[in-house]
Each structure stands twice: as structure tokens, then as C-alpha cells.
Design goal:
The chain is mainly alpha-helical and 105 residues long. The chain is built from five helices and no strands. The protein has helices at 9-24, 31-44, 46-58, 62-68, 78-87. The N and C termini lie far apart (69 Å).
Length: 105
């Protein structure tokens, strides 16, 4: 009996490349057979497989790190004074969209 397993396009390409390299060595194997062998290898070498997954989990997402440790802009409330902090005091200059008008009457 067979079942369907979804993998990314990139993973499928890599699996097909592995299949091609095996053919160059004289081993004809279907993608199904290769996946079964990889599963057997994973079961036999469970610790190595676990190490691969733990390695990926240790990599911290840089955006999450930035959210957890935000940069100090020297502004008490950067959400309200972001334009002032970036561009200076806008009260003394004209707003760039001041002369735009809505087409609605």
C-alpha cells in the first residue's frame, strides 16, 4: 500500500539529483525506494537525525531577536514621534502632500 507525502519543490529536485547520482554509480532506484532507504537510515542513525533537527532549531530568527531586543532611538515613544526622529521637526516645514486634493467633492 502507498500513501502520498507532500514535499517542497526544492526537496523534490534534491531527491531527483540524488537519484541521478545513484544512477551514475549503476544503482537504479525509484524515488519511492530512495525515500524508504532514507527512512531506514534515519531510524538506524536516530541520534544523527535528531542532531540535524536540533541544529535548525538553535538558529534564531534575526527578526524575532530584533523584536525581543529593540534598538534605542533615543525617543520615548517612537510610534508617535517617528517622523520627528527621522526627519526633524515637521512643524517648521511644509508637508510634502499639503497641496494634494481629493477628487471627491
Amino acid at each position: 500500500m502507498y500513501t502520498t507525502v507532500k514535499i517542497t519543490v526544492e526537496a523534490k529536485k534534491r531527491l531527483e539529483e540524488l537519484q541521478a547520482r545513484l544512477r551514475l554509480r549503476g544503482i537504479k532506484a525509484s524515488l519511492h525506494e530512495i525515500l524508504e532507504k532514507l527512512i531506514e537510515i534515519g531510524v538506524k542513525n536516530e541520534e544523527s537525525l535528531i542532531d540535524e533537527f536540533e541544529f535548525k532549531e538553535r538558529d534564531e530568527d534575526p527578526m524575532l531577536k530584533l523584536l525581543n531586543e529593540p534598538l534605542d532611538w533615543g525617543v520615548d515613544d517612537s510610534s508617535m514621534k517617528i517622523d520627528e526622529a527621522l526627519y526633524g521637526d515637521l512643524n517648521d516645514s511644509l508637508h510634502r502632500h499639503r497641496n494634494l486634493r481629493s477628487s471627491k467633492k
